[in-house]
Amino acid sequence: MRVLGPPGWVAAVLFRVLLGSEGGAMAHGEVRLTTTASGHPAWLVSDHGTVRRLLTDPRLDVYHEDPAGAPRCFASGPFGPPQQWTPDAAEDHLRMRRLVGRSMSARRLAGLRPRIQEIVDGLLDDLAAAPRHADFHRLVSAPLPPLVLRELFGVPDDEGGDFDGWLHDAISDHDPDRMVRGITGLSPYVATLVRRRIAEPRGDVPTDLAAAHTEDPEHWTMERLTGAACLILLAGVGPTMDAIDDSLVRLSADADQWAAVRESPELVENAVEELLRLSAITAAGTRTPFGIPRWAGTDVTVDGTTIRKGELVLLDIHAASHDERHIAEPDRLDVHRTGKTPLIFGAGAHYCLGAPLARMQLCILFRTLIGRFPAMRLAVPAGGIRSRDPRLAVGSTGLPVAW
Ligand code: HEM
Questions:
Q1: Is residue 9's pLDDT more than 50?
Q2: Do 402 and 373 contact (CB within 8 A), yes or no?
Q3: Fewest CB atoms within 10 Å of the CB: 48, 242, 304, 388?
């Protein structure tokens, strides 16, 4: 039996505090039995090697034969339950990944780079116009991801306001009414964009979706295409916004590390990887304090523990990123650290399709920000920042900064 170090211990406490779990975790080697907020049992895995291995194990996935009766993380809310298992579910998912992957190709993202730089420059101009203190979340972190997605989806300027509003509503998963309002606005709008591109193709995501519909209308129904588009949009906004907030808080709190990037801007890629590794952000669809939920599709034995078919497994990517058997001094921010790919984008069959775009936004933003605002710092103690999602303690609703 492994005795958990501080990260696992912190995770176990957080689990009880944030999810209101009654019971303590029972250790079974690398796998610990615990209880979720909805009162369901779950297997918690927090060491780096096992988390990584299980993320790529096809016997654990997001499907369940009986989603309504399955163990889950939260008692209510749209996130947390598994998806319905069908014989075609995995194949359909693969087809969706191929389509979305093509839409987010390296070539398309390279073409987007200068535009992202312009967007960042514009947002930082707005920040610079403030009287040496401002809300960084309102002026930069919140608008940046929607503005980038407007480009990717070819949203005309005069429709951008509605688009941004729906996006912000749709990612408010702690406020289900607001979330439904957002999705109700977004879905028909995205379908309209695809229909426009069937008539008049361009080089954007709706054009790729329209082409898929024209090639195989039986599979790529408008409903499926709208689902794929909404997945990109919803998955793309919240975690990127939270990652920007979280990274600013961490980096600005460490004067030496901030100075290292200021003096050697080429360190920014390393710095972003390290900030992502340390970050506690979660992705849409995986919104638990432990990162990634999976359900066993068959009995699976892990380190001597048998996880039965249908049981819930929580792959704690955050604790795994602090596993000192994987990384030395795991809690220290070190922008010179290399070679430790973060698990924050997951791994395996569901690996984040937007990881290159997220990294690009963070790198462009932090390189430009540190160059233009070399003395930026938080204007409030880090502990006083209100989180965007109170259940998860990530992101912010406002980030006062001064320079
Ligand atoms: C820092 C920002 C981001 C983080 C931390 C993040 C994290 C993740 C994680 C952990 C998953 C895997 C979930 C699982 O295994 O169940 C995921 C999936 C996904 N992400 Fe991201 N993501 C980010 C940004 C983005 C962006 C910018 C986009 C697109 C614009 C995006 C699109 C997607 C999509 C489409 C999936 C679903 C993949 C699948 O189910 O096969 N993400 N993301």
A1: no
A2: no
A3: 304
Mutation test residue for ligand 1: of 224, 287, 352, the one with most atoms within 8 Å of CB: 352
Spatial distance between the Cα atoms of 362 and 250, rounded to a whole number of angstroms: 14
The chain-wide mean pLDDT, for the chain, equals: 87
Distance CA 119, CA 110 (A): 15
Helices (H), 47-204: 48-55, 89-103, 106-128, 136, 144-153, 157-170, 176-199
DSSP string, 298-338: S-EEETTEEEPTT-EEEEEHHHHTT-TTTSSSTTS--TT--
206 CA to centre of ligand 1 in angstroms? 19
Q: Does the domain made of 6-402 have the CATH classification 1.10.630.10?
A: yes
Cα dist. 148→120, 291, 337, 355, 397 in Å? 10, 25, 29, 14, 20
Residue of the CA atom closest to atom 7 of ligand 1: 345
Tell me the C-alpha distance between 204 and 164, whole Å.
18
pLDDT in tens, 332-348: 999 999 888 889 999 99
How many whole angstroms separate alpha carbon 289 and alpha carbon 301?
24
Distance CA 160, CA 150 (A): 7
Q: What is the pLDDT, as a whole number, of residue 20?
A: 32
